Amino acid sequence: MQAGLCIAMGATALGAQSSGYGLPKTDARMNRFVDSVLARLTLEEKLGQLTQYRGPWGLTGPQTREAGAADIKAGRVGSFLGVRGAAATRELQTIAVTQSRTRIPVLFADDIVHGWRTIFPVPLAEAASFNPEIAERTARVAAVEGAAAGIHWTFAPMVDITREPRWGRIVEGAGEDPFLGSIIAAAKVRGFQGRSLRDSLSLMATAKHFVGYGAAEGGRDYNTTDIPLRTLHEMYLPPFEAAVKAGARSIMAAFNEIDGVPMHANKRLIDGVLRDRWRWDGILVSDYTGVMELLQHGLSADSAAVGRLALDAGVDVDMVSNIFYKDVAREVRAGRLPVAVVDSAVRRVLRTKYELGLFTDPYKGSSTAREQALTLTAESRSLARTAAQQSIVLLRNERNTLPLTAAGKTIAVIGALASDARSSLGGWAAAGRAEDAVTVLAGIRNAVGSNGRVLYAAGAPVEERDTTGFAEAVRVAREADVVVLVVGEHQDMSAEARNRSSLDLPGVQQQLVERIYAVGKPTVAVLMNGRPLSVPWMASNVPAILETWYLGVEHGNAVADVLFGSVNPSGKLPVTFPRTVGQIPIYYNHKNTGRPSDAKERYTSQYIDVPFTPLYPFGHGLSYTTFSYSAPILSRAKAGTHESVDVSVTVTNSGSRTGEEVVQLYVRDDAGSVTRPVKELKGFTRVSLAPGEQRTVTFRLTPELLAFYDLQYREVVEPGTFSIMVGGSSEQLQRTTLELTGRVHVLDARPIR
Ligand code: BGC
Q1: Ligand 1 within 6 A of 169 CB?
Q2: pLDDT of residue 742
Q3: Cis geometry, peptide bond prior to residue 209 (ω within 30 degrees of 0)
Q4: Cβ of 396 less than 6 Å from ligand 1
Q5: Does residue 60 line the site of ligand 1, with CB under 6 A?
Q6: What is the rounded CA–CA span in Å between residue 41 and residue 60?
Q7: How far apart are CA 390 and CA 372, in angstroms?
Q8: pTM listed for this prediction
Q9: Is 637 helix (H, G, I), strand (E, B) or coil?
Q10: Which one of the listed residues 71, 110, 160, 287 is annotated catalytic?
Q11: CA angle (617 as vertex; 612, 620 as ends), nearest 5
Q12: What tens digit of pLDDT does each residue of 6-32 get?
C-alpha cells in the first residue's frame, strides 16, 4: 500500500490568484502610442474601431450585412466575426494596413469554443472531467489551430452557470456549480491566451455571456431572468471574476435583462462590477445584434439612443448591429454623448490590438503553410481522445455489465446516433469536419477488429416518430451476445435557440429501448446528448448506462476504450439529472427551507407524484473499481474566522482495478445571518489509485471559500459551525464539523450591488 499527500488544486486555485486581477502593468509606452493613434482619428474612424462586421462564416444570428474590402478601406471595420483561414485573413489585413487611411490592423474574431479543427468534448462534457489541466490543454490546442488560421480573438469560454436543462445552451458551459465553473473558466482563459497575448499562437479569450444568461425563464433562450442580488453574486458572477483574475481581456454582454435593464445597457453591472469593483479594463463586446436588440427590449424606439445607451453603459464593440457606426456620431455631435466615452472605448480596442502585437506584425506570422502544419496533428487527436475518455460518466453498472469482452462475441450496435459523425462533434464545431470524427460504431469496430463481430441497425431516427426500423434492430439484437444501444439527442437539439420543454428521449427512442431490452440480451445504453436527460425507465432497467455527451473527433474511440475496459471511466456529473422535467429547477446546492424534503413527512417540501430526489446527483459518476473514504480530518477543529484550515481525507481503491477518482469537498455554513445552501463544492481533485492503494488528499479552506454576503451585502465570514463533507459525489459524503470563533471577518466591506 502506498500513501501520499497532495494539496488539491481545486481548493487553492482561486485563492492563489487573489492578489491580482490579471491586469497588465500600466505600460506608458503603450499608452502614449495608443493616444497618438487616437489623436489621428476622425469621429467616424473612431466608431469604425468599435464596429464588428460579419464575414462569410459569421452568420450566427439574424441576417446582417457582410463587410469586405470597401468597408475596410473606408475605416468602417474594427474587427470581423467569421473570416477564416490564413489566406483570407492575410488578404483583408493587407487591405487594412496598406489601403485604409488609418492603417490600423483589424481583429479577426470567431467562436472557437471546443476546438477549431480538432474538435474536443463540448464544454459540459469536458466539465465532467473535473480536470482543469485537460480544460487548459484543449483550449491551448484550440488556440494554436485558430491562431494559425488567422484568428486573434475567440468568443469563449462560455462561463454561464445554469440550473436549466431545458435551455439548449447548457451544453456550452460547465454546468450548475459556480466553484467548478470558476476553476474551468480560469483554465480555459489560461489555455486560450497562453503565456502572452503577443505570442503568435495565442487567442484573446472572451468570458461570456455577462451575466445571468443561464437563468432564462422557462429555459427559453434570450428570455427574461429573475435573479436576486445575492444569487447573482454567488452563482452567476463568480466564473466571470475567475476569468478576469486569470487575465481574460474580453467579456461579452448577454442578451437577457436583469431587473428591468438589458445587459447591453446595464451600466450598474458593466461599469459598476466589471470596471469599478473588479478594476477590469479589457474590451466588452456586444453579443450578435445585442445593441440593436435594445430596441426590441423596449428601451427606446430610436437606434441612435440605444447606441448611446450601450456605449455609455460600457459596451466597447458593436457586433454586427452597425448602430455605433451609423448612428452614434450624431449623438456625439448633438452633445448627448461625450466624445470621451467614445474615446475610452476606442482606447481599449487599440490597446487590445497593441497587446496582441498587431501594430508590430499585423499577420502574427500567419501563413497557409503554418496553418497546415499545426492543424489536426496526431498529438491533438491524442489529447482529444484523453479529454473524451475523462469526460465520460458511468451512470449505472449493475452486476458489472461493463466492461465488455469483445473476443469471440457478436456485438449489436443499435441507434441512429451510433453512426452520426456530425453529432459526435457537438454544436460549436468551428472548422471541424464530420469526416474527421470517429463515431461510436466506428470506434467499436476499431476496438473489436477481427476478434469479434459487430452488427449494426439504426432502429429509429432521433426525432421522428418512425418505428419501421424496429424489426431489423430486434433481429440484430437477437443475433448478438450483447447490445450497445446508442440513444439521446442529435447535436442540433442543443446549443443556441435549441431549447426543449421535455427532457425525455426524443422521437420513438424510448420505445426502441424497451423493445430491445425485451429481447433479453445484456444491454448497455450509451447516451449522447447536450443536456441532462430524464431517463428513469432506463435508470431502473438497463443495467449499464454511459453518459457520453458529444465528445469531438475521438468520440467513438473513447467510448470503445471505456466499453471494453482499456480505460476506467472517471467523469462526474457537472449538473443534476432530474427524473422528470417537472422537477426543474433541481440542483444540489439548494436551500434547506423551513420544511426540508422528507418522504415520510407529509408537510415537507416534496411532490405527491414523483420523489423529490434527482435521478442522478451532481458529482455522481461510477468506476469499474470502488473507492472508500475516511472521515475528513481537520488541521484544527477550531479556528478564527480570518484563518485557513486544512481538510484531509484518505481515499482507498477498494476494488480490483486501477482507477481515477474525483475527490470532492463540500461545505455547509450551519447557521448564518442569511440562509446558506445545504452544501457547496469548495474543492476537488483527481487521484489515480492502483488496487489497494490509498492516498491522503488535503484541501485548504481559506476564508474566501467560507465567505458569503451578509445582511449588509458585505462579503464576510461569520463565526459558528460549518459541516465539512468529502466524498465521490454530492450525495455520498463523510462529515465532520469545523468551528470558527471570534468576530465577523469582513473580506470586502463594499456592499454588492
Ligand atoms: C451567441 C454568442 C456568439 C455570437 C457570435 C451569438 O448568437 O450568443 O455566444 O459568440 O453569436 O457568433
Answers
A1: no
A2: 98
A3: yes
A4: no
A5: yes
A6: 31
A7: 28
A8: 0.96
A9: coil
A10: 287
A11: 155
A12: 334 333 333 333 323 444 556 899 999
